[in-house]
Design brief:
globular, five-stranded mixed β-sheet, four-stranded antiparallel β-sheet, alpha/beta, 572 residues
Length: 572
């Protein structure tokens, strides 16, 4: 039940090196490349260029399309699909081209896949480039998120990579970041400068987004100043010779301490340096000299720097380099060890960026078919499905949870989860992520696919997904609830054009507009409170003379100044 592909070739291809990661294994044996994986073709290539060995990982979604195999066919373990020499010959240069571009270029909009990757990116641009970072927190099921996505991409292109860094963060894929920054509605844009959050924009307004970007870019340019200790000491010698060296150093350190985060060199820079210069001018009627902290060259992406060097012929060459022989005989043992440590660290960081450890999370607890039917399959990935998975896993049943990686309705909640014992100030995505981790810890596995059909006419049952068939002795259906539509004229035709069942998803599209919420339960109360944050007014229409919702939520709605209630009414 494992897809295996063999590639026979006679001409040399970039050599494979052995790599094992969870359920992935591939190696080269003579002239045969064998890749073993469930759904993904993972290739590790090392090649030599200019005397330097480059390494990169490339992954491909694999479907057996050669010979008579179809995408749904299972290839028995040990069988091979033979590729012609011409196919392999076309494949190798393509892989090398992808490696060259992906390892050097800074993407226009970068997709963040883990909190560790995000923290590294913030640290890098706070200490080496000074560029602001604009983060778009979104969700795949969010309508306004899809509307603003091309605008965000276009603004990134217009702003330029030498001016700002643009990233996207899926709140469902990286819930810990959404919890850290208190994301309560999507899309939410957070603007970082010098590693610190300086502004937040909620909603999908392209004009407002452009204004916020201009603001953080201007701040980045304005704060790109530095006062050195030598400059400050020279300044005091001119304006106040009575100041001792220790007193000058104390002033400098006080300025440096105002930038505690991402300031390993204890420098006086940014707004702190500007305020110090302004204060000294007011006191001594003379400004202290400032220098540029990050040059235009520092802010350029690595690939652009290399291209400019090659175009202008500024690439450094030596006799040793021209002969492809490193001048190692000139370096001391300490220099060699230091350089080796730097290269190993750089390789590790590059590997994490291209294929971080978190990217293997889907393989770590992913479902892999066995020789026997499963004991139990659970359909649904929300709290109900996770609860069932925890109990089944603790009973030793090794359940298979079949659901898209969206976590049910709770994953998209824009309000805090505050009615569950022991949980406070947490969002829906955080709760679902914690439940999933707990179920996985006890042995549950996950098939991140949608169920399209269940065949209960045979034993064991067959659960059909988009790409696989799971045989199981028992099925637990935990698919949650769906929106309760009114089924009135015009409702279906206007879905997505003014009629919605998710205030968190679509509420930003009705910014400063009059909206109506129909219902009297907890869901209606939550939606009304979310909409009241951004809408001009909210009218709740209920068919009875009192709400069925919990007293706390109902009281909040009735006391909210922007919410009106229309009792004993229905919409026709």
């Amino acid at each position: 039940h494992t897809d295996v592909v063999g590639i026979q070739h006679t001409e040399p291809c970039p050599p494979m090196t052995r790599k094992t990661a969870t359920s992935l294994t591939f190696f080269r044996e003579q002239n045969t490349i064998t890749i073993t994986t469930k759904h993904t073709l993972l290739v590790e290539l090392s090649y030599k260029k200019d005397g330097i060995v480059h390494l990169a990982l490339i992954s491909f979604r694999f479907q057996p399309i050669l010979n008579k195999a179809s995408p749904s066919d299972k290839i028995p373990l040990g069988s091979m699909l033979q590729w012609s020499y011409s196919s392999v010959l076309r494949l190798c240069p393509l892989l090398l081209l992808v490696i060259t571009q992906s390892t050097l270029a800074r993407p226009l909009v970068r997709q963040i896949r883990s909190s560790h990757e995000f923290d590294r990116l913030i640290e890098k641009h706070a200490t080496t480039t000074g560029l602001p970072v604009i983060a778009d927190f979104y969700s795949d099921g969010c309508g306004p998120c899809r509307q603003i996505a091309p605008v965000f991409q276009q603004l990134a292109k217009e702003t330029g990579q030498e001016t700002a860094v643009f990233v996207k963060i899926n709140t469902q894929a990286v819930p810990d970041l959404a919890g850290r920054f208190g994301i309560r509605s999507i899309p939410t844009f957070i603007f970082f400068h010098n590693g610190v959050k300086v502004d937040v924009l909620n909603g999908a307004s392209g004009q407002a987004l452009q204004q916020y970007i201009s603001g953080v870019v201007s701040k980045s340019r304005r704060d790109n100043v530095l006062i050195t200790p030598e400059t400050l000491e020279k300044y005091y010698k001119e304006v106040d010779p009575t100041k001792t060296k220790d007193e000058v150093e104390k002033v400098y350190l006080k300025c440096a301490d105002m930038n505690k985060k991402h300031n390993p060199k204890k420098q006086c820079h940014g707004a702190a340096a500007l305020n110090l210069s302004k204060g000294l001018k007011k006191k001594y009627n003379k400004s202290v000299e400032t220098t540029v902290r990050f040059t235009e060259e520092d802010r350029k992406p690595a690939d652009k720097k290399q291209n400019e060097e090659q175009a202008t012929g500024k690439v450094k060459t030596t006799d040793a380099a021209s002969s492809n022989k490193p001048n190692l005989h000139l370096a001391t043992k300490e220099d060699l060890l230091e350089e080796l440590e730097k290269r190993l660290e750089a390789e590790t960081e590059a590997m994490e960026e291209e294929l971080g450890e978190d990217d293997f999370a889907e393989f770590e607890h992913s479902y892999s078919p066995g020789d026997f039917p499963e004991r139990v399959a659970i359909i649904g990935g929300g709290p109900a499905g996770m609860s069932a998975a925890i109990y089944a896993a603790r009973a030793g049943l090794r359940p298979v949870v079949v659901a898209p990686p969206m976590g049910g309705q709770l994953q998209g909640k824009g309000v805090d989860v505050e009615n569950y014992p022991g949980l406070a100030n947490v969002t829906g995505p955080e709760v679902v992520a914690a439940m999933r981790d707990q179920a996985a810890a006890f042995g549950a596995v996950f098939e991140c696919e949608e169920v399209v059909k269940i065949d209960s006419s045979v034993r064991p049952f067959k659960v059909h997904t988009n790409s696989s068939v799971i045989e199981t002795h028992a099925i637990i259906v935990a698919t949650g609830a769906q929106s309760n539509w009114l089924n009135i004229p015009g409702e279906y035709e206007m879905r997505g054009g003014g009629v919605s069942s998710c205030a968190v998803c679509d509420g930003a599209a009705f910014y400063q507009k009059d909206v109506v919420v129909i219902g009297g339960g907890d869901t209606a109360m939550e939606e009304a409170l979310v909409l009241a944050r951004t809408s001009k007014s909210v009218t709740v229409v209920h068919r009875r003379n009192e709400f069925r919702a919990s007293k706390v939520l109902a009281q909040r709605v009735m006391e909210h100044p922007s919410i009106k209630i229309k009792w004993n009414s229905i919409v026709t």
